[in-house]
Specification:
Mean pLDDT: 97
Number of domains: 2
Number of helices: 15
Low-confidence stretches: none
Shape: globular
Strand content: 5-15%
Largest sheet: 8 strands, mixed
Bound molecules: ligand SAJ
CATH architecture of the largest domain: 3-Layer(aba) Sandwich
CATH topology of the largest domain: Rossmann fold
Strand order of the largest sheet: 3-2-1-4-5-6-7-8
């Protein structure tokens, strides 16, 4: 089987890798010339275990080619971003539409087209299907169109792509059956056949579920800071109940999924999606909450910010709440940023970041921050205070004062 994948990002590239490993030929298409050149040399641009080795081998064996333009194939998979439109929170389908239009000259009767990008409910039927119909295809008859949302966790993408169950939302039943042949190449989880609109809303709801639960944890953290209770203890205790799973409070919700997908539902039913919107607002308020507490800890001085990725142990900083916090604090403090997972010439080593510092502010749960070099910190810093917004530091030497969401009420 030959597969053409439009978009070689966090989902498109790992998906390409798995098709290659399962003896398919893959053309990976992207608009970035630099990325394409690198991929054709086997050099990848994402930090994700397992992908680099597979792509290198696939390039050597000529089963993977990266290209700026699509090619004829049996199946076309669209994995391009879908941001939201700021004015009304609706799903910006422009990249998806452009990607669909770009494959039109290469499509043949019998091909399958799969949209993996997260899209708002009804997008496949109302916006994407007409693109192919207007080009002369009859969906379900000579072209098979489905929405099959990706549902993998960065850091575990290969494993989850293989083992997670997949929702295959066909425009017709025949479409869904055809797409099963494509995913059958490497997916070992169940392939669940349904309608496109059900697949679209299921995907948006998965991330909304998580966003709402994180908002609940964040609200709890704020309540506890007000009334003088240790929020982290509450979470630990409550979670001993067999049917309770309180999530973890943090500096806000980042990434390209949780911080965006709930808006797609809200935009469809703004009068009804009240909890969904309130959860977004609550999570969006966390950077301000962090800054407010920083100001209580130290009114001025130098802050060493540790971690700007939205997610621990990845170099992915999309929608990271860290940037909002840094921008706000830069008005009143000297800021030095250290993130061992992100290449940025403005970022510095832990040594440099903490030199003459007054506060360490942890905004991301990279493993490197779990056991910091406390000798270095005590030696370097003027004030040895840490504010850990991800609750990853369990114990510190006596000379260091640790704040986290368990004891912010001490600042009242
Ligand atoms: N976060 C918290 N508290 C928590 C859990 C997470 O503050 O208890 C924060 C994280 O720090 C991060 C953000 O939420 O900033 C999102 O992280 P995440 O690990 O929950 O989710 P993503 O965005 O990396 O991946 C999600 C996954 N969805 C679900 O778990 C329902 C993944 O399966 C999806 O494939 C992905 O979104 C996607 O692409 O939609």
């Amino acid at each position: 089987m030959k597969v053409c994948i439009i978009g070689q990002g966090y989902i498109g590239l790992p998906t390409a890798a798995l098709f290659c490993r399962n003896h398919c030929e893959v053309v990976g298409v992207d608009i970035s010339e630099e990325m394409i050149n690198n991929l054709n040399k086997g050099i990848i641009h994402i930090e994700e275990p397992g992908i680099s080795e597979i792509i290198k081998k696939a390039v050597e064996h000529e089963v993977y080619t990266a290209s700026l333009t699509p090619e004829k194939a049996d199946a076309f998979i669209i994995t391009v971003p879908t941001p939201y439109i700021a004015e009304n929170y609706s799903c910006d389908l422009s990249y998806v539409i452009t990607a669909c239009e770009s494959i039109l000259p290469y499509l043949e009767k019998g091909n399958t087209v799969i949209i993996e990008s997260t899209i708002a409910p009804m997008s496949t039927d109302e916006t994407i299907k007409p693109i192919f119909e207007n080009a002369g295809f009859t969906i379900g008859n000579d072209l098979f169109l489905v929405h099959c949302p990706e549902r993998v966790l960065p850091g575990r993408i290969i494993d989850e792509l293989i083992h997670n169950d997949r929702i295959i939302g066909g425009v017709t039943e025949e479409c869904a059956k055809k797409a099963c042949e494509v995913y059958g190449q490497f997916v070992e989880g169940d392939l669940m056949l349904t309608e496109a609109k059900t697949a679209e809303l299921s995907k948006c709801m998965e991330n909304t579920f998580r966003d709402v639960n994180i908002a609940l944890a964040n609200e709890l953290a704020k309540i506890c800071a007000e009334i003088g209770v240790n929020a982290l203890d509450v979470i630990e205790m409550a979670n001993k109940h067999p049917r309770v799973n309180l999530h973890s409070p943090g500096p806000g919700v980042g990434g390209h999924c949780l911080a965006i997908d709930p808006y797609f539902i809200y935009a469809k039913s703004p009068e009804t999606a009240k909890i969904i919107k309130l959860a977004r607002d609550t999570n969006n308020s966390m950077p301000e909450f962090v800054c407010m507490n920083v100001k209580k800890i130290i009114p001025r001085g130098k802050i060493a910010v540790l971690g700007v990725s939205y997610k621990g142990n990845t170099g992915d900083d999309r929608e990271s709440p860290a940037y909002e916090i840094i921008a706000e604090l830069s008005n009143d403090y000297e800021i030095a940023i250290h993130d061992p997972h992100i290449e940025n010439s403005d970022f510095v080593s832990l040594d440099e970041a903490t030199k003459d510092g007054d506060l360490i502010l942890i905004l991301c749960d990279h493993d490197e921050f779990k056991n910091l070099d406390y000798d270095l910190i005590v030696r370097n810093m003027k004030e040895t205070i840490i504010f850990d917004t991800k609750n990853i530091i369990k114990e510190v030497p006596d000379e260091i004062k640790l704040y986290n969401y368990g004891n912010l009420y001490e600042l009242n």
